[in-house]
Amino acid sequence: MPDVRLASPQGKWILLTTVLGSSMALLDSTVVNVALPHIGRDLGADLAALQWTVNAYMVTLAGLILLGGALGDRFGRRRIFVLGVLWFAAASLLCGLAPNAGVLIAARALQGVGGALLTPGSLALIQASFHADDRGRAVGLWSGFGGVGAAVGPFLGGWLVDGPGWRWVFLLNVPLALLCAPIALRHVPESSDQRAHTRFDALGAALCAAALALLTYALIEARTASWTVALSAVAGVVAAVAFVLVERRGKDPMMPLDVFSSRQFTAVNLVTLCVYAAFGGFFFLAALQLQVVVGWSALAAGTALLPTTVLMLLLSARSGELAERLGPRLQLTVGPLLCAAGMLLMLRVGPDASYLADVLPALLVLGFGMVTLVAPLTASVLAAVDTARAGLASGINNAAARAAGLVSVAALPLLTGMGEEAYRSPRAFDDAFGPAMLICAGVLVAGSVIAFTTVRRPAPDCPRPECRTHGSVLTPPLEQGARGTARDR
């Protein structure tokens, strides 16, 4: 049984290690969008290359994150976590030194592999190390400090882009890793799951990543209407079907399809796909809109987006408490509608927009909507499955959110008619930004309708989330497992 106490020196070192590791991934997911215009100008990249700069990372991360958690259970959580940290740092170094867009995109894909190893590992180390009496507080501190890192990300990214340059957005991960890895090796105890001696679903992970990559390619390059695009789309569909067949027939699938026999679990994941598709597209395009069209610096654009994360940090725990009293249905219905209203308010953000009059009201409404829906969304995912499968359910939900975001980033420019050079033209980008916000708002309304018609109040003794404080705007919290039932507490 884990017996490290939070107040002990070792407990503090473990907490620092996990915060540093998770902060690397959170920082990276929030700062890159702010750097995109500068990356494009410096490397002579078109809009498709900027889309791939975001999506190459998301493809490998979403496709491999479930496998990454299984590797830690089998070979040692600390070992896989440290491997992920060092891998992430090496890929970040390659990103920072990339001489062209092609190398940057390949390095971003490698970054996603490292992220898939370290992201589930940081929370798993807390679960496996701390005494049961301290575990809840340790998770709270971990998620809180991680949220602070997510909040600092856009501001720090903007400062780096305007100052030392966009390459430092990636190079910053190297010293963090060089600090994190030795601390982990010295102070974090090794742990594993003695029951995890089954085969790994490497084929399923490869098919999942391949399907995401091929379909993303087809969406990004669809404007060319070439045979390559058509073949990629067909191959992506074939890979997706093969993935489903492998998961259905495999002995040890990474995503057992019987978990979707719960109608509630399926419904909540459909809501997840809707809301995080909208969020992924919004934060990708909003960072560009504020710089390309409004004319703000990277620092100003990054700072402008902070209110959503700050509201999440301050109010997510209270939102979760409210959902426990009222049930999740009301918040999962109202939250997406508030987010849709926030995106409609962004239609006012054009040339010479005012931050106080135009941008801030939209972000505040969006932020309150996110606060309203994220905590009950996670609680509903956990409540829809048996306690023993809570970690699996959370992993699937987290991967679904990432996949929705990458599809949105790939599809929105196509659906709104953005040309390859649109981000270089304020007028062309602004003309496409409005329809994109309308599409995102429509997807959110669809998510609200699904929630209203399908989500039901969970049983009183269902698993409850451990991560009460959450700061990421692009993914729901990743739960290693459930804290237990109401009667356990």
TrEMBL record:
**Lipid bilayer topology:** Multi-pass membrane protein
Does the record bear Ion transport in its keywords? no
User: What Pfam families would the database entry show?
Assistant: MFS_1 (PF07690)
Question: Which residues, if any, are the signal sequence?
Answer: none
InterPro entries membership: EmrB-like (IPR004638), MFS (IPR011701), MFS_dom (IPR020846), MFS_trans_sf (IPR036259)
Its transmembrane ranges are 12-36, 48-68, 80-99, 105-126, 138-160, 166-188, 200-220, 226-246, 267-288, 294-317, 329-347, 359-384, 396-416, 436-455
Q: Which domain of life is it from?
A: Bacteria
Mind telling me which Gene3D superfamilies this protein's record contains?
A: MFS general substrate transporter like domains, Multidrug resistance protein D
Location in or out of the cell: Cell membrane
- Keyword tags: Antibiotic resistance, Cell membrane, Membrane, Transmembrane, Transmembrane helix, Transport
Major facilitator superfamily (MFS) profile domain: from which residue to which, for each copy?
14-459
Residue span of region Disordered: 461-489
Q: What is this protein called?
A: MFS transporter
